[in-house]
Write a structure and sequence with these properties.
There is one protein chain. By secondary structure, the protein is mainly alpha-helical. The protein folds into two domains: 54 residues, Orthogonal Bundle (Arc Repressor Mutant, subunit A), CATH 1.10.10.60; 129 residues, Tetracycline Repressor, domain 2. It contains ten helices and no strands. The protein is elongated.
Length: 201
């Protein structure tokens, strides 16, 4: 049986961390992240410094956690089983990634507008390239270095396009981008598998 006291402490801990992350997201819209102090973050979160240090060692650790949780949420929203049923068709995967990023769009926009998107972008690129491995790795005899180049390149491009859409920097519908990227992934898959004829460009 769960200890009621521990359950209460766990809820309190979650509320405190939520208050800290909410305060950080508010502050990065007002000033550079590097100039935010523990004191002003604690004040905005309505906690004391001692409470802050029970959860984080500095303010950048808060940003790091926000980024990590954001990437986790984007990919945890995927219905991976259904996406992987038809491994030859990446479109369902792309559609779900786009929808998932759209659901988390507010936090993504805050990080990018705050100029703190570099590490988040790197983490998202890595997660996307790892997922793309699933579509491209089967039965390939291509040099692993070349293979990783393709997945890294495609992952970074995919992240860039979705961010452009989220930030309102393009008028092209996300569905059209998904179609084009699916075609590109299909071409990469054929190129990485020597048994398949690659059409001339």
């Amino acid at each position: 049986m769960e200890n009621p006291t521990m359950k209460k402490l766990d809820r309190r801990c979650k509320r405190t961390k939520q208050a800290i992350t909410s305060a950080m997201l508010a502050l990065v819209q007002e000033k550079p992240c590097a100039s935010i102090t523990v004191s002003e973050l604690a004040q905005r979160a309505d906690i004391n410094r001692k409470t802050f240090y029970k959860h984080y060692h500095d303010t950048m650790a808060v940003i790091d956690e926000i980024e990590n949780e954001l990437v986790d949420k984007i990919f945890s929203n995927l219905n991976r089983e259904n996406v992987m049923l038809d491994i030859e068709d990446p479109y369902p995967f792309l559609r779900q990634i786009g929808e998932s990023m759209r659901r988390e769009g507010e936090r993504i926009r805050i990080l990018i507008n705050a100029g703190e998107d570099t590490r988040f972008s790197q983490k998202l690129d890595q997660a996307l390239s790892d997922m793309l491995d699933t579509f491209l790795k089967h039965n390939t005899s291509v040099d692993p270095v070349v293979f990783r180049f393709f997945t890294t390149f495609l992952g970074a491009g995919l992240r860039f396009i979705y961010v452009q859409v989220l930030m309102g920097r393009t008028d092209v519908p996300i569905e059209r981008y998904n179609e084009m990227i699916a075609e590109l992934i299909g071409y990469a898959k054929r190129m990485l598998h020597p048994a398949v004829q690659v059409p001339a460009l």
